[in-house]
Amino acid sequence: MVEAKALVKRFGEFEAVRGIDLHVRKGEAFGFLGPNGAGKSSTMRMIACVSPRSDGELTVLGMDPDREGPRVRARLGVVPQQDNLDTELTVRQNLQVYGRYFGLSRAHVRRKAVELMEFAQLTERADDEVEPLSGGMKRRLTIARSLVNDPELLLLDEPTTGLDPQARHLLWDRLFRLKSAGVTLIVTTHYMDEAEQLCDRLVVMDGGRVVAEGSPAELIARYSTREVLELRFAPGDQEAAVARVTDLGERVEVLPDRILLYTATGEAALEQAHGRGVRPLSSLVRRSTLEDVFLRLTGRTLVD
Length: 304
What we know:
Blueprint: E1 2-11, E2 14-24, E3 29-33, H1 40-47, E4 55-60, H2 65-73, E5 76-79, H3 91-101, H4 106-119, H5 135-146, E6 153-157, H6 165-180, E7 184-188, H7 192-198, E8 201-206, E9 209-214, H8 216-223, E10 227-232, H9 238-245, E11 251-254, E12 259-263, H10 266-275, E13 282-287, H11 290-298
Parallel strand pairs: 3-7, 3-8, 5-6, 6-7
Antiparallel strand pairs: 1-2, 1-4, 8-9, 10-12, 10-13, 11-12
């Protein structure tokens, strides 16, 4: 569905995407993770055929976006990071008007609007204007609108940012249904649990490069441990505890408010720490997550 080799995007002297390779298979959910400025959005815009590449090779749906952009865009669905709905039109009108941009007949877009409103659970709001809808409803409508042309490839940029947990889970359900129906998904997200839920494979980008690629489980196995032990201490006690627990994990991370021990068995490490007289205020044993991988690969420093 998407093939990139040594793909580069420059803005003047600044290289936002620095020679990345990608391969997105038909029917999978593929994710981009990375801090702000990593090059995710620049890559998505090249795939969406709205930003020309500066160098390298790129094919989308077997076509060159630079030469066949309109043909590619006709078969894509795009969900932007910010909803760009026509707020003074109704839910139904948003779908019908957007469908006409693709040259679809009025009869077809009327039928398609009914189908998509049911898919997005917006049938009861069909003739309501968009402006007073909740954030979750607007997001569902944006996704529904992106499907009006029956796309083979759906690009979703931060699809659930700002939504409450119920709305996020409902959107996940709708995206699972699309994937089950054969639609290929490419997702950017800052939510690690979302990436684990949705993505079959993903890449982690940092500084315009791909620094890791694989399934969520593969990345966790490669860059973290099975479990993480978190130890929290009273002010002033943490520094003395560090030396006593350093050898209890494959990797130890000392943060201002806690110590993280990356280990195969968190309970065993906690028992050993207690045996050495370490008495934290609280302890937590949890499984490693994509967030642990993400922070190890990209660091904890805030990037603006």
